[in-house]
Amino acid sequence: MMSKKQTIEALDLIAEMFPDAECELTHSNPFELLIAVVLSAQCTDALVNKVTPGLFAKYKKPEDYIAVPLEELEQDIRSIGLFRSKAKNIKKLSQALLEQHNGEVPKTREELVKLAGVGRKTANVVTSVAFGVPAIAVDTHVERVSKRLGICRWKDSVKEVEETLMKKIPKERWSDAHHQFIFFGRYHCKAQSPQCDTCPLLDRCREGQKRMKAREGK
DNA sequence: AACTCGGGGCA
DNA sequence: TGCCCAGAGTT
Questions:
Q1: Which residues contact A91 (CB under 8 A, 6 or more apart)?
Q2: Quick check: A217 pLDDT over 80?
Q3: Which secondary-structure segment (H or E) carries A149?
Q4: What is the pLDDT of residues A188-202, one digit of tens each?
Q5: What PANTHER family is this protein classified in (predicted)?
Q6: What burial class does residue A95 get, using C-beta atoms within 10 Å of its C-beta: 0-12 exposed, 13-18 middle, 19+ buried?
Q7: Per-residue pLDDT tens digits for A43-60
Q8: φ and ψ of A27, to 5 deg
Q9: Which nucleotide does the CA of A82 lie closest to, via C1'?
Q10: Which of A29, A48, A141, A154 has the most CB within a 10 Å radius?
Q11: Of A169, A179, A183, A167, nearest to A8 (Cα)?
């Protein structure tokens, strides 16, 4: 397991690789971000960004999502997959914003996770990106990278990964680290092709060392 | 903890 | 054409 010091050193190297890492979901206000992150569950940000410009031109406020028939909203987001449940969630979520939050996006994780289609990851992205609250949203990239590097244990749950990262990374770096890990996982340490050969973290990476030894053994 | 939902992108 | 992508909700 990486110590706190080792974790920060690894993070520094990743930050050098992706100094401009930031949220890639197209949005221009907290409500658009919330919708975009809900849509991004189980699909890529690039795919979400294909539908959101048209979607946000048509739907500006929670009322707009409520006004339209479910089938119409389903068709508007059909290309991203899982569109039936996502359309239902967005209508429910819009209703809740109107009835319980004056049509505004709530600013706390506790309130956000009560919304339909909003889980731990989505809530953390919204609070950190829209409201500047320090947070580490653990998606599959963050989880995979943290486990490969040895920052946390392979068997850790998403919640345990998040708690470990918060312990080992200074709070003022949580939000930047979150995006840097995501970029590292998405563009370099990919699920099927980690690109260990060109990785600056190879000598300090648990999984990378294991892979190199396995290759030499052949 | 395991299962389900789903179309797009790429080999 | 079949594998890979990548969270929330339910049981």
A1: A65, A66, A70, A73
A2: no
A3: helix A140-149
A4: 999 999 999 999 999
A5: A/G-SPECIFIC ADENINE GLYCOSYLASE/ENDONUCLEASE III, ENDONUCLEASE III
A6: middle
A7: 999 999 999 999 999 999
A8: -170, 155
A9: B6
A10: A48
A11: A169
Range 116-135, chain A: CB under 7 Å to any strand C atom? 116-123
Q: Which amino acid is at A50?
A: K
- Confidence check: pLDDT of A69 > 80: yes
Listed as ranges, the nucleotides of chain B within 7 A of a protein C-beta are 1, 5-9
Distance between CA atoms of A62 and A66, rounded to whole angstroms? Answer: 6
